[in-house]
Amino acid sequence: MEPLKYMSGFGNEFSSEDPRCPGSLPEGQNNPQVCPYGLYAEQLSGSAFTCPRSTNKRSWLYRILPSVHHRPFTSVIQGNLSYNWDEVDPDPNQLRWLPFKIQKASEKKVDFVTGLHTLCGAGDIRSRTGLAIHIYTCNISMENKSFYNSDGDFLLVPQKGNLLITTEFGKMLVEPYEICVIQQGMHFSVEVFEETRGYLLEVFGSHFELPDLGPIGANGLANPRDFKVPVAWYENRNIPAGFTVISKFQGKLFAAQQDISPFNVVAWHGNYTPYKYNLNDFMVINSVAFDHADPSIFTVLTAKSTRPGVAVADFVIFPPRWGVSEHTFRPPYYHRNCMSEFMGLIKGHYEAKQEGFLPGGGSLHSVMTPHGPDAECFEKASSAALKPERVAGGTMAFMFESSFNMSVTRWGLEKCNCLDKSYSTCWQPLKSHFNANAKPSHK
């Protein structure tokens, strides 16, 4: 496969046309009486028409047939996709999962859609407020099938295996250490090349955006120029046996048949697009004197709520960096949080827990559930020589943090058979070092 081409930027006004059809973008207007090449004009709106210009999201697609050209939708099997946050009792414990299992193709063929498993979430799809965290595991590609999410945006974090994602806007190759966002309503199909696993954050009612930088200034964290948007690519392919379009609508899956591939967009323009980002491009900012900057300093993307400074979900990473803080306990501090924290590991060893937290697994520390370094980490870091050191070399951990108090599904607590029931024992060896007669030292 030839290297794919991309456009650079975040939230830009992009325009692209497949080079096989030069001049396919109409000039001077969006919806001419007759489009070039006999195409249909279709607008995809990601915001209300009357949103302020700074938050108004839409794209115009010029396609061989409009997306309405399908037969009626009918309900299909849900599998382990769920938005029932009350199916099991709440669990305030610290939760950790061993690597989620990938079924072998010789046992059962599973594509991206059938391999979606809801782990936890909160909120309500119909009122369009909240989020869900899913795990995807699959072993075959989606063949003559596309998927779109009527309920919200998907942020995909591959952990094992590359994803070749075909969208209405073009193609993206997304590898581990990269992420991609497929926004609400966008058709896509996933091709895989091996047994594949990853994490998926879904938000309802808001879109991901770059965090405000405040006193950091104009540059830093995830820079807009490093985001990549696909270029137009189309296929004019009839499928006599039928092409299946899967819609996730109000948390349920529905399927419709049509005779032509939905990836028939010859040209498009707008600011509502899928995009990808390489986590290695993140400009890390960290404390260079003493104490910790809060982990929000590692935010890549945020989906804001209506409350200023409070997110429906933040996507935060813990990349390789230098630790130089003086007089400081350098690992993450002990913490109780008014937010929910789900963590995953793409590769390597997380510094606060060298054992047990494994690539392809995860952990959930719910609202006000205590968490922090295990006993071994505490003892080691409390006596370590505080020299400049490389932190998290060869590692990429991440966090989905949310203001919502998330519930875990039955699949997450029982059916996945990956819950590490010994997790809490990592803190039991912690011992008191209190000495009422000790004289405090000063910097």
Explain what you see.
- The chain is mainly beta.
- It has 2 helices and 29 strands.
- The protein has helices spanning 375-382, 410-415; strands at residues 6-8, 14-17, 40-45, 58-63, 74-75, 95-97, 116-124, 129-138, 145-149, 152-160, 163-167, 170-174, 178-182, 188-192, 196-204, 208-209, 227-230, 238-249, 252-260, 265-270, 275-278, 299-304, 311-318, 321-323, 340-347, 362-365, 389-391, 396-402, 407-408.
- The strands form 6 sheets. A 9-stranded antiparallel beta sheet has the order 1-17-21-13-10-15-8-7-29. Strands 6-26-25-28-23-22-16 form a 7-stranded antiparallel beta sheet, with no helix packed on it. The protein has a 4-stranded antiparallel beta sheet with strand order 2-20-4-3, with no helix packed on it.
- A hairpin with a 2-residue loop joins strand 18 and strand 19 (252-260).
- The longest helix is centred in the last third of the chain and has 8 residues, at 375-382.
- The chain is globular and about 85 Å long.
- The model has no long low-confidence stretch (mean pLDDT 95).
